[in-house]
Design brief:
This is 4-hydroxy-tetrahydrodipicolinate reductase. Belongs to the DapB family. The protein has helices at residues 13-22, 46-49, 63-66, 79-89, 106-114, 129-144, 167-179, 184-187, 239-252, 262-266; strands spanning 3-8, 28-33, 72-75, 96-99, 120-123, 150-157, 204-210, 216-223, 228-235, 258-260. With 268 residues, the chain is α/β, with parallel strands linked by helices. It has 2 domains: 3-127 and 238-266, NAD(P)-binding Rossmann-like Domain (Rossmann fold); 129-235, 2-Layer Sandwich (Dihydrodipicolinate Reductase, domain 2). Helix 1 links the parallel strand 1 (3-8) and strand 2 (28-33). Helix 1 crosses helix 9 (239-252). The radius of gyration is 20 Å and the shape is elongated. Bound molecules: nicotinamide-adenine-dinucleotide. Nicotinamide-adenine-dinucleotide binds at residues 8-9, 11-15, 34-36, 39, 76-78, 81, 100-103, 124-127, 241. Nicotinamide-adenine-dinucleotide binds next to helix 1.
């Protein structure tokens, strides 16, 4: 059965990737997309915006209008926009909401959770299936390998990235800290620079590289005196986030209302 999908922020990087990915996936039909008030992309064909053939669907302003035939809403926009859309979706037939938007503050996060009484919501800071699998494996490895195994996280990204370590590196660090039953802030080593002294037992270190067009490369290394174990993920295409979000949508539509993560989707 084909699920009907509406996409928020359809002219954005993720919005376009979702349109391109959706039309090639089985069981997935795009029925609408929104853009922000004042956007020059409003009323343009969402297929053309995504760099593919016209789909005869125009980017619209109203979430309620765009989603009137949809059962899944996918939102990679901005926190205030995502929250406003959820209020508007209340009177539609949408049952599952996939949220990739990042940067919600605590109050916004609490407001989001309120909507999970009505919708099956999947929210993730990283929708890549591979990253979520590696995250679960890192937590298990950190729990099973004792404190005498040092944990080092290395990430590489393109030269345009402005923050470090990446959100995904921090997510991997949190998983490792979780395995060690402590918050990351207690275990994170300050960046190595100058005379650092010896490495402290049980700490989690981060290293960062920035070069060229690397989409994203993350490696978590566990090291004892006698052996090294590495878990690594390399992103080869930005469409991994869209693919993960679509898979989450197909899973969520079969769930009762609730607040879910990618780990629930993948059964990890
Ligand atoms: P982008 O700026 O390219 O796209 C965002 C789009 O949303 C824009 O086209 C913008 O006009 C639109 N928009 C803003 N307000 C809107 C509104 N009220 N109604 C409709 N559309 C609106 O950004 P992006 O790179 O696509 O990222 C978008 C979000 O997704 C960011 O929060 C980013 O951090 C996040 N992201 C998450 C993942 C993940 O796996 N969870 C992956 C990539 C990006």
């Amino acid at each position: 059965m084909s699920h009907k999908i509406a996409i928020a922020g359809v002219a954005g990087r993720m919005g376009q990737s979702l349109v391109r990915t959706c039309i090639t996936e089985d069981g997935c039909e795009v029925v609408g997309g929104t853009e922000r008030p004042g956007s020059g992309e409003l009323d343009k064909d969402i297929g053309v915006l995504a760099g593919i053939q016209p789909l005869n669907i125009k980017a619209g302003l109203s979430a309620a209008e765009v989603a009137k035939e949809a059962d899944i809403w996918i939102d990679f926009t901005a926190p205030t926009s995502t929250l406003a859309a959820m209020t508007a979706l209340d009177l539609t037939g949408v049952r599952a909401i996939i949220i990739g938007t990042t940067g919600f503050n605590e109050a916004e996060e609490a407001a989001l959770r309120e909507f999970s009484k009505r919708f099956a919501i999947v929210k993730a800071g990283n929708f890549s299936l591979g990253v979520n699998l590696v995250t679960a494996l890192v937590e298990q490895a950190a729990a099973r390998l004792g404190d005498d195994w040092d944990i080092e996280i290395l990430e590489t990204h393109h030269r345009r990235k402005v923050d470090a370590p990446s959100g995904t590196a921090l997510m991997l660090g949190e998983a490792a800290a979780n395995g060690r039953k402590a918050p990351l802030k207690d275990l994170q080593s300050p960046p190595y620079d100058g005379i650092t002294g010896e490495r402290e037992t049980g700490k989690i270190g981060f290293s960062v590289r920035r070069a060229g067009g690397v989409i994203g490369d993350h490696e978590v290394m566990f090291g004892s005196d006698d052996e090294l174990v590495s878990l690594r993920h390399t992103a080869l295409d930005r469409n991994i986030f869209a693919r993960g979000a679509l898979r989450a949508g197909q899973w969520a539509i079969q769930q009762p209302p609730g607040f879910y993560s990618m780990r629930d989707v993948l059964g990890l």
